[in-house]
Amino acid sequence: MAKYSYKHLTCLGQKLGFLDNEVDSEEVLLFFHGFPERAYTWERYLDYYKNKGVRAIAIELKGYKESPCSSNDLGEYSLDVVCNEIIDFKKQLKLKNVHLVGHDWGAIVVWYLSTFYHESFMNAVTLNAPHWLVFKKALLSNPKQMMKSWYIFLINIKKLSMKLLKINDFQLLKSSIKKGSHGKLPDALIESYCATWAECLPSMTSWYRAMRYTKDSDDKVKVPMILLMGDKDPFFVKSLAQQSMEYCEDGRFTFVKDCAHFIHHENEAVVLKELDQLI
Prior knowledge:
The chain has 12 helices and 8 strands. Helix 7 (about 160-180) runs antiparallel to helix 8. By secondary structure, the chain is of the alpha/beta class. The protein has helices at about 45-50, 80-95, 105-115, 130-140, 145-150, 150-155, 160-180, 185-205, 205-210, 240-245, 265, 270-279; strands at about 5-10, 15-20, 25-30, 55-60, 95-105, 125, 225-230, 250-255. It is globular. It has an 8-stranded mixed beta sheet with strand order 1-2-4-3-5-6-7-8, with helices on both faces.
């Protein structure tokens, strides 16, 4: 499905796959996808910035097809480990002015990088994911968020969740994507993900089971941060957006009208307008 060919780097022992529009530019947009997508979900964005003369790279998250992780140690999916690998990735490619963009779990990675590795990045845009501590607290104390996050509790029962998610050719995942995108993801794109799910679902879902390894810290996000949330996102309560700003030294949030959880597919124009302002 990917139009760009995957390249690979070994970063602190972890193989990371990525797509690169290969523009010769000091300004670099670094994209991170979420669950249960792939790096090539950003291909249209790579094309857009190629036409504007800006380098854009999309990294495949650890545990997904092009970034396989053979370890059964959930600590390998802790944000500290993952982000150290990404910092090594940046160093190896000698990337200069890096602007971060992430969706869902990719956005959580961006929040973390913007907090603990802020000296390495210019600014950031996160899509459809609040600050990780805001979400973690809500998951344990907010009944409405608990109901919206029922799937996380299911995923933490590994054997049961793997059986249920595979029923009827991953129908539960497919319907979740369609609901979360208002049907804006093409069927062909969703079907292309299925082969990855069949091969990598246990490692893809390790991110959820590794949440307990996430560092609790009141450190501020020092990178200028923009949070975009769909005003109809079925997976998060709206109050988490404002709460996330309390962790930012320089942050703002916007609810994108009539969008759900996949706003990079649902309203590219709004996302690109924000990204254009980064550079």
